[in-house]
Amino acid sequence: MALWRRSSSWLTSCSRAPAGIGGGNEAKVSPEVAPEEAREEDRRAEAEDEERWSRLLPELLTDIVRRVDAGAERWPPRRDVVACACVCRRWRDAAVSVVRPPLECGRITFPSSLKQPGPRDAPMHCFIRRNKSTSTFYLYLSLTQALTDKGKFLLAARRFRHGAHTEYIISYDSDDLYPGSNSGVGKLRSDFLGTKFLMYDNQKPYDGAKSLKSRSSRRFASKQISPLSGDNLEVGQVSYRFNFLKSRGPRRMHCSIQCPVGQGTASDPSKEKPPSTSSSLSLKNKAPRWHDHLQCWCLNFHGRVTVASVKNFQLVAPAGTSDPWGVGDEETVILQFGKIEDDAFTMDFRHPLSAYQAFAICLTSFGTKLACE
């Protein structure tokens, strides 16, 4: 017995037919279209749709995208810019040529923006929410001047225990936080004491990046295939100084982050060849001062941190640092992180760090470090 379905084309023609024509109230049916034929029809329809949109003059197309970009300063209206880039290939190319990277415009638009340096003149305000029961962390872009709001989701991470080591899997997808994730961005791996962390990227940020194969990637490679199942590219280190004598003072940390020199300004890094060289950006935590009246260590977070915590820190470049980014000033805070609620923390970063690098550094602050406190 053949399968049948109501024909949509018939319904359309029937609605246009004069009364009394077409068999009265009879419901006509047509044979079921094979799945392959249906998919082929859908592909042809999509191709015709794309061809119609791509016929616009280049000047007109660029002007349309430029107007949409100028009228969408913040999220959620900024989703219209992403929608323009999803129309077809020509619209995508136009959006990539119009939309500027965070370094120039101070805005995050495409996923590729998360691995590009932040703004130079003012920090980009974000916040992190923690779920202790699932060991997950979520990074959001602040949409208002409030410390926390609904926010725009950027990245997520989940902590795993592998023997004596701890790993954080960082992903674009908040529901896909497992080794072997197809939406993985990179990962963070700690040593036995949790005082030294290695930061890895699943994409080559520059020519000559150091490639390593971790034991965890080999373990999952037989069952799942993902960007993280092959080579992991080391792009930074974060270390905490030991404090075995329990001297008075907060944690002391040092970061060495590999940042490409001559980073391009295109919004889509696939449009350009990765820079051939990189330079190591050295950062250390800004030393707090002891407040006799409050009897605690204090740092000026300019109202962005409200709860005292051992996790709070500010990172600056050491005095006299010579680097291609011009951040050798101990008063310029490159990254600050601090607690505002039990499971909410602010994260503000600026050039030359990217959102991904800043998020990975902040993840190292979670967890107990008995040897450092």
UniProtKB/TrEMBL annotation:
Bias kind Basic and acidic residues: ranges: 36-46
Comp. bias regions, Polar residues: 1-15
Tubby C-terminal domain residues: 114-368
Residue segments, region Disordered: 1-50, 256-284
Compositional bias per record (Low complexity), positions renumbered to this chain: 275-284
Superkingdom to which the source organism belongs: Eukaryota
Family classification: Belongs to the TUB family.
Name of this protein: Tubby-like F-box protein
Upper lineage: Eukaryota, Viridiplantae, Streptophyta, Embryophyta, Tracheophyta
